[in-house]
Design brief:
With 283 residues, the chain is an all-alpha fold. Helix content is 71%, strand content 0%. The protein contains 11 helices and no strands. Helix 4 packs across helix 9 and helix 6 (137-167) packs parallel to helix 11 (262-282). The protein is globular. The two termini are 23 Å apart. The chain crosses the membrane at residues 6-30, 42-61, 81-107, 200-220, 258-278. This is Glycerol facilitator-aquaporin. It is found in: Membrane. Its main location: membrane.
Length: 283
């Protein structure tokens, strides 16, 4: 699909907002006191984040690439798959989308924020937190190490699998074969000839991506909460810091800025490594 870069920025904004609404919205439903989903369990959160990735991918995958993740955008740019001139606009759109999506989560759950007495439950519906933190410097150091390792492993699997599934989807070989037979996929005749293979294959890849996120949340989300995305953590954390207690309740705690670098730096490094490995294997 041929679209302007402005449209791509808009879809990155919308895709990231949807991710936050469905993902962090699920966390709010489970963690905030008084909701109908209160204490309904981790699988609810996993489904929320899985759908939060899958649905924007199906909506915008053929528009902007549906990065919705600064670490993925940077990894693609460093490996030569994405133009550097568009990195900053993409990341800005993603961060703003995350903040906007979180604002909608707060607006829809405000009565339950006011009822919640656990500050970690409030912050956890915005950003990642570490359960091993007891407030001491020793626990801070241990939490950052554990969080960094956890975020790196999960992010690496996410980015490498996302590249492998969406670039080598069922039907990709058909496209390559058609090119050897003189079919130009950029022209309308070529699109008609192989379009069904491309669309079906990419749809399967995007569905699989959603299930992958569900699996990552259930398997690696326990230590810190599902991060794997600098925008998903940093944008909502900024909003948590800015919103007053009149909005989030008297039990709003600190935003734990001492930990904030971990879910930003670790996924970025994982994204760079994952895309580099993809390039080495698949070319």
């Amino acid at each position: 699909m041929d679209v302007t870069w402005a449209v791509k920025y808009i879809t990155e904004f919308l895709g990231t907002a949807i991710l936050i609404i469905l993902g962090n919205g699920a966390v709010a439903n489970v963690e905030l006191k008084g909701t109908k989903g209160h204490q309904s369990g981790w699988l609810v959160i996993a489904v929320g984040y899985g759908m939060g990735v899958m649905i924007p991918a199906l909506m915008f995958g053929n528009v902007s690439g549906n990065h919705i993740n600064p670490a993925f955008t940077l990894g693609l740019a460093i490996s030569g798959y994405f133009p550097w001139a568009q990195v900053a606009p993409y990341i800005i759109a993603q961060l703003l989308g995350a903040i906007f999506g979180q604002a909608l989560v707060v607006a829809s759950h405000r009565p339950y924020y006011l009822q919640t007495t656990n500050p970690n439950a409030i912050l956890g519906s915005f950003s990642t937190i570490v359960n091993t933190d007891d407030g001491s410097k020793k626990s801070h150091a241990a939490s950052m190490i554990n969080g960094f390792v956890n975020e790196f492993i999960g992010s690496f699997i996410l980015f490498f699998a996302a590249m492998a599934m969406t670039k080598n989807y069922f039907g990709a070989e058909v496209v390559k074969y058609a090119a050897t037979r003189g079919v130009d996929a950029t022209q309308i005749q070529g699109k008609v000839a192989i379009g069904s293979h491309i669309n079906a294959g990419l749809a399967v890849a995007h569905l699989a991506l959603g299930f992958l996120v569900m699996a990552l949340v259930t398997s690696l989300g326990g230590p810190t909460g599902p991060g794997l995305n600098p925008a998903r953590d940093l944008g909502p954390r900024i909003l948590h810091f800015l919103l007053p207690k009149s909005v989030l309740g008297e039990h709003k705690g600190d935003s734990k800025w001492w930990y904030a670098w971990v879910p930003v730096v670790s996924p970025i490094l994982a994204g760079i490594a994952a895309v580099a490995l993809y390039k080495m294997i698949y070319g």
